[in-house]
Write a structure and sequence with these properties.
Blueprint lengths: L3 H23 L7 H11 L2 H11 L9 H27 L17 H16 L4 H14 L12 H16 L2 H6 L3 H20 L6 H4 L13 H22 L14 H16 L3 H8 L3 H15 L1 H11 L4 H13 L1
Helix pairs in contact: 1-2, 1-3, 1-12, 1-14, 2-9, 3-7, 3-11, 4-5, 4-12, 5-7, 6-7, 6-11, 9-11, 12-14
Amino acid sequence: MATKREYYFDNAKFILIFLVVFGHFIQPFIDDHKIIMTIYHFVYSFHMPAFILVSGYFAKGFKKEGYIKKTAKKLLIPYLIFQLIYTIYYYFLYNGQSLFFEPFNPQWSLWFLISLFCWNVMLYGYTKLPMKWSLALAVIVGVGVGYIPFVENYLSLSRTFVFFPLFLLGFYCKKEHFTALKRPAVQVGSAVLLLAIFIGYYFVPDFNTGWLLGSKSYETLSQENLGGLIRLAVYAISIVMTIAFYSLLPKNKYFFTSWGTHTLYVYLLHGFVIKYFRNSDWLDVINDTGNFASLVFVSLLLTLLLSSKTIRAITQPLIELRISIIKRFFRVKQEGY
């Protein structure tokens, strides 16, 4: 039986993957609506850092025999499969976009699979250093990579180095660290902090969202001189918001908890719907009516749908390279006769 601690992290994964979907739905509207821009900046300041941190937390077994091979099978093979599928999909969606298959330039959100594999491999080198030095080195590299103009989307190199400090921090986290965050005083402070940051984002001048994506060089972001300091500030905001998120995260089981174990399906599949939405008339309908609240419901519905057993049974051969769900279905059906 699952423990409350496991419920806690399943809750985190579900909420975070919902925010991924929601963030992608609202992105086309950020330039025309201040409140949507504020929500977008707020969500993007912590949702992927929090996702990456929990991924690092569960990477403690990286030295076990066969771990890297298993991780490669889990991440790289689905990456190549969906890189090809998305290439074909975009060709038809965008009326003849190039069908050239580029395995080393991730299509849109597929960057996470390459980076996650790289982070697991990078643990072998970084964990040979004392914790404080390995974290310091990861931050230095994450800041320094922004000064290299050609390191951006290729092999997801920029994001790999920029977000690695969060993964490494998660690796070093222990159960008691998360337990300590549940103290009432910490939770009250976390709620106040998140509210203050949200209000602050609303009133500060608009800034390039590329700072939150980790995929652009300082030259591309037009901040060659102050880029390093800005990235350090982004690190600070992301870390405190991630801590606040885990402090306020519920630890009991809810109706959505079990769906938190199927986030890879949502992550890989939601892009088909998002890209279709952005290329459809629905974009103008939402923008003209201002019915942005409906996107919360649509995002939740899509997250639940893509987590469903039916969708997982259909797509499991592509994502997990097996058909265990279908086998169980037919086995149960046969036993019923």
